[in-house]
Design brief:
Elements (H helix, E strand, L loop, with lengths): L1 H24 L1 E7 L7 H8 L2 H4 L2 E7 L3 H9 L5 E4 L2 H8 L6 E8 L4 E5 L15 E3 L6 H12 L9 E3 L7 H6 L5 E5 L2 H8 L3 E5 H5 L5 E6 H6 L1 H20 L2 H8 L8 H13 L11 H13 L9 H4 L3 H8 L1
Parallel strand pairs: 1-2, 1-3, 6-7, 6-8
Antiparallel strand pairs: 3-10, 4-10, 5-8, 5-9
Helix pairs in contact: 2-11, 2-12, 11-16, 12-13
Main location: periplasm
Family: Belongs to the bacterial solute-binding protein SsuA/TauA family.
Pfam family, one: NMT1_2
Length: 329
């Protein structure tokens, strides 16, 4: 009996040792996402299905509301990788950053917002916004710039043809509309679908469909971090690509079920509806490569919104090597 107990004790010690060794072998990557959104479904798929662990990475996910705050986290080394709109990297570079923020893996490739009307309108036209109150997103952010770009493409001047409200914090936009502010509002999923389900609004247009492909949400890091941690960044990109392929090839119901733990307060049917909308309009990039044409469209949108601080070349702020390598594997 004593011999058996000794063997069990040794076995237990070996199990503990192996477990500790496995944990110690993981490389920690601190990722700051600009918001928690079903728009970022591939990231949550990679986390939930263990794709990062398969690559020897332990991802610590932080939600830091606001693109400017994500940039501060990166520049101050409080985060390693940011998931945010590419426009933020242009803003930082235009200020003469010695260690610029570099885009290396694209996650979403269209705008993720929808135009929600307070009143039902089965024959909506953007000209219907003339003279109305439009509750938009934060000035200088991609949602607002895309919103203004789309309005102008349809002959609506957001400064003169309607009442534009853009001084409400992102977290309070939906509640402000519910409280009676605005005739139209620009919302992400699943909030837009929740409004429809509750009878508080009607989705009449997709800004993603109207604006074309842009590097809307991208993984980025300081240039020095990419240089010093090439192996880890490559592994990170490989895990993201694997998740992108999963999202590309699976049904919305399956994707929604996997990411549900990240949205415990959201109904599963709403998550499924949101994923289906994003898949249908091609919002989820099916690979991490940020193409130059999308970068040029981003600058066009920023320029027309009067928010492009400098015409910075694609090669200066986009690193293709990690995406190209995982695509070649």
């Amino acid at each position: 009996m004593k011999r058996v107990m000794k063997l069990l004790a040794v076995a237990l010690m070996l199990l503990v040792f192996v477990g500790c060794s496995s944990d110690e072998a993981l490389t920690t990557i601190r990722v700051a996402e600009v918001t928690r959104s079903i728009f970022y479904a591939p990231q949550y798929v990679a986390l939930e299905l263990g794709y990062f662990e398969d690559e020897g990475l332990e991802v610590e996910l932080q939600t830091i509301a606001g693109g400017d705050k994500v940039m501060i986290a990166l520049l101050s080394n409080n985060s390693d990788i940011g998931l945010v709109g590419s426009e933020t990297s242009i803003y930082v570079a235009a200020q003469g950053a010695e260690d610029p923020i570099i885009n290396f893996a694209q996650l979403t490739q269209t705008d993720g917002t929808f135009l929600v009307a307070r009143a039902e309108n089965d024959h909506f036209s953007f000209s219907d916004l003339a003279g109305e109150t439009f509750l938009g997103q934060r000035k200088g952010g991609m949602p607002q710039m895309v919103g203004e770009y789309v309005l102008k493409e349809h002959g609506i001047d957001p400064e003169t043809d309607l009442e534009l409200i853009q001084n409400i914090d992102f977290a309070n936009i939906a509640s402000s509309f519910l409280a009676g502010t605005g005739d139209y509002v620009q919302l992400f999923e699943p909030t837009a679908s929740q409004f429809v389900k509750d009878g508080n609004g009607h989705i009449v247009a997709s800004f993603g469909e109207e604006s074309g492909n842009v590097p809307y949400t991208v993984f980025m890091a300081k240039e020095s971090f990419l240089a010093e941690h090439e192996d880890a960044v490559l592994k990170f990109t490989r895990a993201i690509y694997r998740a992108q392929q999963f999202v590309e090839s699976n049904e919305p119901e399956a994707i929604a079920e996997i990411v549900q733990p990240f949205f415990v307060e959201t109904d599963g049917e709403l998550l499924t509806s949101a994923v289906a909308r994003y898949k249908a309009q091609g919002s989820y990039a099916n690979n991490p490569l940020l193409e130059q044409a999308s970068w040029e469209q981003l600058k066009t949108i920023m320029s027309k919104a009067g928010e492009l601080p400098a015409d910075i070349d694609y090669e200066e702020l986009v690193n293709r090597q990690f995406a190209e390598q995982v695509l070649d594997e």
